[in-house]
Amino acid sequence: MKKLISGLSALAILAMPVTAFAEPTTINETSDPQSANAVITTEIASAYIVTIPLDTKVTFNTENTDFGTIELTKAQLDPGKAVKVSLVTDSKMENKADEEKTLAYTIFEGTSDAVTEKVFTSAEYTAVGDKTDLTINITAEDWQTAYAGEYSDTVTFNVEYTDAVPES
User: Fold this and answer.
1) What does the alpha-carbon distance between residue 103 and residue 95 come to, in Å, rounded to a whole number?
2) Residue extents of the structural domains in the chain
3) Closest CA to 64 of 98, 111, 3
4) Nearest CA to 79 among 122, 131, 44, 129?
5) What local confidence, expressed as pLDDT, does residue 34 receive?
6) Which residues contact 83 (CB under 8 A, 6 or more apart)?
7) What's the pLDDT tens digit per position in 73-108?
8) Mean pLDDT for the chain?
9) CA distance 137 to 144
10) What is the structure's pLDDT at 23?
11) Of 70, 79, 168, 68, whose CA–CA distance to 126 is shortest?
12) Which of the four CATH numbers 1.20.1090, 2.60.40, 3.30.70, 1.10.357 does domain 47-163 have?
């Protein structure tokens, strides 16, 4: 039994990791050449933080409501990579009392003061500060034909780390 325990102890000691350090290079008056190189390395893991809009209440009869901003607030990206944010929505709010009654909306790029005609579906971000302002648009006609009641919808922002699409 003692031999078994001794053998297992010896194997355990042999299995322990041993850290080996390279000997430093020394240069003295007789060294040729009189220089040496040292390699400095580091590794940075890819990481990012994307902020997305908060829950938003749209005021009745308001055609353009600021929805907030998608922004890349931290970016340690590999070369040739991007953070892609895409929006998934059916573009209609449902009436809480009757889901058959809906109120259509569109999410455009831009602020409510400077709305573009570009519907937001997705965008790529590669640097801190890259952002897209968003606006919820409900047309006057849709407001006029909507039934009374409380409406809501949930939009989903999908974020993925992907190969950057070259700009054309």
Assistant:
1) 8
2) 47-163
3) 111
4) 44
5) 84
6) 48, 50, 72, 75, 77, 124, 125, 126, 159, 160, 161, 162
7) 999 999 999 999 999 999 999 999 999 999 999 999
8) 90
9) 14
10) 77
11) 79
12) 2.60.40
